[in-house]
Specification:
This protein is mainly alpha-helical and 196 residues long. The protein contains nine helices and two strands, in the order αββαααααααα. It has one domain.
Length: 196
């Protein structure tokens, strides 16, 4: 009786042993994550993204002002721009990945309302302006309003995902403006404190 050899991949640690027909033997099936735990994790992450999107000036602005008083302005501005760009890209990527589950839950009514308004006389031209394929306009809008908010509005009005390059440009524009604004306030506060 001739013995057949198993492929090397079956002998690696962590890989289950397989029978000749390909079924796994000797390892229990992985338990799926409970539904309540998934909902809790989703709720915590979506709350963190929403807090960052809407309250970043209130929460992170004072921290950046204090850092600009304590450290050189170029170090503060560079570190803040890099960090906030990364945070914006991560938040926007999470938002786009979890869009379908959000839209089926909380956003279904909002999307139906936007679909009606998008075709109406009031929002027809702003919707075209926001959803057209222009990196410049998305970057300008994100620099003024906020990247996460702009990506959300584009997804609501346009119905299709925003490209990664556009998200990176918009994130950098918003982060550089945010960092420059609060670093400038910190520099002004530092100069004022020196005069006193």
């Amino acid at each position: 009786m001739r013995r057949t050899r198993r492929p090397l991949s079956a002998h690696r640690s962590g890989d289950p042993c397989r029978d000749e027909d390909g079924t796994t033997i000797g390892t229990p099936a992985a338990k799926p994550e409970p539904h309540a735990l998934k909902r809790l994790k989703y709720g915590v992450i979506s709350t963190a993204v929403a807090v960052y999107a809407f309250l970043d000036d209130l929460l992170l602005g004072p921290i950046l002002v204090a850092a600009a008083v304590l450290f050189p302005w170029y170090l503060t501005m560079g570190a803040a721009t890099g960090t906030f760009t990364l945070v914006n890209v991560v938040c926007c990527n999470w938002l786009q990945r979890s869009w379908d589950s959000w839209i089926h839950g909380h956003g279904a009514r909002l999307e139906a309302r936007f679909a009606k308004l998008r075709d109406g006389r009031l929002l027809k031209y702003p919707a075209r302006w926001i959803t057209r394929d222009s990196d410049v306009w998305v970057t300008v809008a994100a620099g003024l309003i906020g990247t996460v908010i702009v990506v959300t509005v584009i997804r609501l009005l346009g119905g299709k995902p925003v490209g990664h390059r556009r998200v990176v440009f918009a994130s950098f524009a918003y982060s550089a403006g945010f960092a420059a604004t609060y670093t400038g306030v910190g520099i002004g506060l530092n100069d004022l404190l020196r005069l006193i």
